[in-house]
Structure formats: structure tokens, C-alpha cells
Amino acid sequence: MSGMQSLPRDALQRLTRELAGEPILWAGQPSPRLAFWRAALLWLFAVPWTAFSLAWEGIALAAFFSAEPGQRPEGVGAVLVWIFPLFGLPFVLIGLWMLAKPFLEARKARRIVHVLTETRLITAELGPTLMVTSVPPSRIVEITRKDGPAGTGTLSLSLGQYRDTDGDRLEKVIHLPGVPEATQLDRELRRLMG
């Protein structure tokens, strides 16, 4: 059974205060490695995007800096010499963000802890502040589990339907990706759902 002893020390200290004596049935963290590789598929798009954006920016900056001070273009040409480097900058920043995304996802996975007690399923994000989301198992309507490698899996918890401001029916779903021992958590949640 997954337990609190498998969690990092700082997570243990912060969650102990949050739980205040609630008995723990299951605890675990998403795999940072799986989070990294799941997001790394983005690199298939990010690498050419960033390469093209950097090439555009390099050409635009070369045109900007290559003109002699007395030979700078005037009128529309002067505006374009300023606009092209500014136009390319957001594309470069988006490309760099896409390249960093797998690392950011792995870092986020290291800070997330899932804990199941008799009364609630807790997802805690450990950062400068502790952000806790709790769901009573009695609110869960349906569980969908997708098993992955080495016992990890993704649980999708349906909390039922609601209507948005337009009157459309939407389903409230919580996704827990990369959960270790997903079968065990699924079994425990189904038992508590009643």
C-alpha cells in the first residue's frame, strides 16, 4: 500500500498539519519522469517553430544593425526595420516556452501529492504556499482508469454534470495523471463511493 513514508520530508511535514489526524488509506506522487516524457512530444513542434523564429529574429536584427547611421531607411522602410524584430520576439518567447514545457511539467509533478483518507481525496500542490483541493469520495459519480507502465495510471473522476451560464450541460471531471499504484487508488475510491 502506498503510504506517507514514500513522500519527501517537507511534503510529510506540511501534509501532517493539513490532515490533522485523519487516517491515510493511500498516498502517492505523480512520476516526474512520465510527466516530462508526456510533455516532450511537444518538442516535435517546438524545435522547428523555435528554429524558424530565431532565424527570423536573426535576419530582422541583422537588417536593423547592418545599416550605417547615415544610410538608414526612411519612411515605410524605417518602420519595417523596427517592426520586424518586434514582430518576431513573441514567437521566439513562445518557442522557448514550448521547449521548457517538459521540464516545467516534471517540476510540477515533484510538487504534487495525492492523499486518500476515509473522508476525502486530497491533491496538494507544494510550493511557496500549500494549495489543497479536496473531494469527498461520495461526490464521485464515475471513475475511469487508464493504466500505464509500471503500475502508474491516469484516473479521471467524474463529479457529475452542471449547467454553465449559457445553460449548457457540462461535466465536472478531475484528472489525476501519472498516479502510482493507480489500481489500488481506484479500488479504494470505489469502496468509499459506497
Describe the structure concisely for a colleague.
This protein has 194 residues and is of the alpha+beta class. It has helices at residues 9-19, 32-40, 43-66, 76-111, 182-193; strands at 24-28, 112-117, 121-126, 130-135, 142-147, 153-163, 169-179.
Structure characterization notes:
The protein is an alpha+beta fold. It has two domains: 4-31 and 108-193, PH-domain like (Roll); 39-107. It contains five helices and seven strands, in the order H-E-H-H-H-E-E-E-E-E-E-H. A four-stranded antiparallel β-sheet has the order 1-2-3-4, sandwiched between helices. Strands 5-6-7 form a three-stranded antiparallel β-sheet. Strand 3 and strand 4 (130-135) form a beta hairpin. Helix 2 packs antiparallel against helix 4 (76-111). It is elongated and about 80 Å long. The two termini are 21 Å apart.
What proportion of the residues is helical, as a percent range?
A: 40-55%
Number of strands: 7
**CATH architectural name of the largest domain:** Roll
Order of strands across the main sheet: 1-2-3-4
- CATH fourth-tier homologous superfamily of the largest domain: Pleckstrin-homology domain (PH domain)/Phosphotyrosine-binding domain (PTB)
Number of helices: 5
Distance between the first and last residues' Cα: 21 Å
Given as residue ranges, the uncertain stretches (5+ residues, pLDDT < 50) are none
